Amino acid sequence: MPKQTLTAPAHSLVLSVVVPAKNEKRNVAPLVDELEAALTPLGPFEVIYVNDGSTDGMEAEISRLAATRPWLRQIRHERSGGQSASVRTGVRAAQAPIIATLDGDGENNPAYIPELYAALTASPENGIAAGQRVGRKASGFKKFQSRIANAVRGAILKDGTRDSGCGLKCFPKALFLSLPYFDAIHRFLPALVVREGYKVVHVDVIDRTRLSGTSNYTMWNRLWVGLLDLAGVWWLIRRKKPTPPSKEIRP
Asked: N or C end of the chain, less CB within 10 A?
């Protein structure tokens, strides 16, 4: 497949894809190839890898690939800030009005991004298109943990999302930046979008096993703080007051 030349001005990009990644050197090249194949039909795009303080040579690998791909960018954190911080860094640097995210380990298939983009842009009332994993490739214990966590989360937040952990999401940049930021925000985006008066649309996606390596963002890293985050998001939702209709008064 011919390489895309980013000839369109930045403001005409239709999509920016943000990939938070830490120590995923061996997964970069195959995922970049898949992203190129999936995104080229959409129109001008960019892919922003947020290198979250990697120490495995991922920086050099992304730079090597970017030398022949003008749409591929890399932003490096001097030290690891976590997945939510990486997503926020990428969104703030993005040049397109619409953002898609996916994990850097290869478990999320980029082929679903056009479907997410179409679902989001089908109506101005939609605030986020969220992937919902089916046939998830994970251990029985990990799937059990996720089922319990998602059930508790759904009962409290009532945002209609049954899989908060899927990295495949698509949303407007401006809406994301208007949300209150905190660590682990990426897991609560549907609830926060509903809080702002928008709708959540879901797209079923088929999960894959990671291409290589082991996860750097694990369940045990966030279990207890996740309970506090859940309580905090519940509080934010309850404290949101409806915005009165308004209009500009001209002389």
From this structure: C
Cβ count within 10 A of residue 250: 4
CB 134 within 8 A of CB 205: yes
Q: Which strand (E) or helix (H) includes residue 38? A: helix 25-39
**SS3 assignment for 156-219:** HHCCCCCCCCCCCEEEEHHHHHHCCCCCCHHHCHHHHHHHCCCEEEEEEEECCCCCCCCCCCCH
The two tokens of residue 115 are 């479907």
Q: Which residues contact 184 (CB under 8 A, 6 or more apart)?
A: 82, 83, 84, 222, 225, 226, 229
SS3 105: coil
- The strand pair at 15-21 and 45-52 is best described as parallel
Task: Please report how the helices 113-121 and 25-39 are oriented relative to each other, as an axis angle in degrees rounded to 10.
Answer: 50
Low-confidence ranges of the chain (pLDDT < 70): 1-11, 135-163, 211-227
Residue 49 DSSP label:
E
Name, in order, each residue with C-beta under 8 angstroms of 159's C-beta and a sequence gap of 6 or more.
190, 191, 193, 194, 200
Dist. CA 51–CA 1, nearest whole Å: 26
Q: In sequence order, what are the residues at sequence separation of 6 or more whose Cβ sits closer than 8 angstroms to the Cβ of residue 120?
A: 98, 126, 128, 129, 170, 171, 172, 201
Distances (CA, A) of 97 to 154, 174, 198: 29, 7, 17
Q: What is the pLDDT of residues 189-199, one digit of tens each?
A: 998 999 999 99
Q: Are 125 and 194 in contact (CB under 8 A)?
A: no
Element (H, E) at 98: strand 98-101
